[in-house]
Amino acid sequence: MTHRFPAKEIALQSGLSTATVDRVLNARAGVSPQAKRRVETALRELEAQEQQLSARGRRLVIDVVAEAPSRFLREIRSSTERALSTFRPLSIRARFTFHETLSVPDCVAELVRIAKRGSDGVCLKARDVPEIRNAISDLTMRGIPVVTIFTDCPSSQRTAYAGLDNYKAGQTAGYLMSGLLNGADGTVLATQSDRGFQGEEDRLDGFRQQFSRSRPDVPILEVGSGAGLNRRTAEAIEKAYEKGTRIIGVYSMGGGNHGVIKTLTQFRQKPIAIIGHDLDEDNVDLLRSEALTLVLYHDLEQDMRTAIQHILAHRRVLPNAPPDNSLSDIQIITPLTIPDRYCP
Q: Residues 112, 135: contact at Cβ < 8 Å?
């Protein structure tokens, strides 16, 4: 059994005699399974204590770069700050670079600046395009780990992804939508913030696959490039909508739901079901008023904690990174099940 602690220290931690610890460590005969387990537990506890001691006084700086509507950026900031507090006594400072809209060249320029000034790691919500994948590769080559959050760049050299399985989220929305419509005829509207975000593309693919399996007779009207902003989303729907179309359901992947509902009301459309994503302040208000039927939610604080754990493991501050399959659970939130912390 490999270790780096004196037998006397292991004995003190485990409550066993030094002689028993020595027999366990050297795999000698006459050792009970209970003694072996106690020594293994003591070693894990000593390693954890060592990590905590080495972390005291150490300071790290991570960069959080995201393109999203301001209401969602506020959720990312508060979730990151709550997640960081769970890593004490380690001192981690976050630098936030947030934009409601961020062109690909400007995003690349920001990643280049981070590469030049240095960082202990980057949490990145950005579009999955070649220029950004190249910038991620450059950061990685400089020894700066990049964890994509909420939407992935899977073919880049990023260290890990933290978020939910977006394809399964889309499938879940398709399954729920087909049941909520209860055989009604018409068209389902599917809105995205930007087709460059891989997460939303996966949601749309999963939704198409699942919904079309149960309701192949119902067309899906796809609308993109609303940036999750109310006005731009409304304008995109106005351009795509054809007079006489009956909208019976809405799957909103990228937000802008006040704009979605306002525009459909102007067209005298009252969908049977509207499914949104995330518990930002707009969606919480719309849930309370029952303008939204339900929201697919994942715990942003847990996502940010997972992202930070990947960075700390890369920096060898933590012994192990989270498993590759540690994706967020998909939670279904209705007007009756809004979490307490979102209630006034």
A: yes
CA distances from 134 to 86, 238, 316 (A): 32, 36, 25
What is residue 88's predicted lDDT score, i.e. its pLDDT?
76
Which residues, in sequence order, are CB contacts of 332 under 8 Å at separation 6+? 172, 176, 294, 295, 296, 297
CATH topology of domain 166-297: Rossmann fold (3.40.50)
CATH of domain 59-162+300-328: 3.40.50.2300
Kindly report the backbone phi and psi dihedral angles of residue 206, in degrees, each rounded to the nearest multiple of 5, phi listed first: -65, -40
Residue 214: the pLDDT is 93
Q: Which residues of 242-260 are buried (b: 16+ CB within 10 A; e: fewer)?
A: eeeeebbbbbbbbbbbbbb
* Amino acid (one-letter) located at 98: F
Q: Which residues of 25-60 are buried (b: 16+ CB within 10 A; e: fewer)?
A: beeeeebeeebbebbeebbeebeeeeeeeebeeeeb
- φ, ψ of residue 6 to 5 degrees: the values are -60, 145
Rounded to 5°, the CA angle 39-43-44 comes to: 120
Question: Domain extents for the chain?
Answer: 7-55, 59-162+300-328, 166-297
Q: Contact 147/311 with Cβ under 8 angstroms?
A: yes
| Alpha carbon distance 45, 167 (integer Å) | 38
pLDDT digits (tens, 9 = 90+) for 59-94: 789 999 999 989 899 999 999 999 998 887 778 889
Distance separating the N- and C-terminal Cα atoms of the chain = 54
Listed in sequence order, the residues at least 6 apart from 240 whose beta carbon sits closer than 8 Å to its beta carbon are: 221, 223
- Lookup: tokens for 303: 């996502």
Helix H or strand E encompassing 11: helix 7-14
Name the nearest CA neighbour of 152 among 173, 172, 132, 171: 132
Cα 84–Cα 89–Cα 91 angle in degrees, nearest 5: 55
Instruction: Return the pLDDT at 317.
Output: 86
Closest CA to 304 of 48, 64, 52: 64
- For 234, counting Cβ atoms within 10 Å of its Cβ (0-12 exposed, 13-18 middle, 19+ buried), the class is buried
Q: How far apart are CA 164 and CA 74, in angstroms?
A: 19
Query: What is residue 320's predicted lDDT score, i.e. its pLDDT?
Result: 83
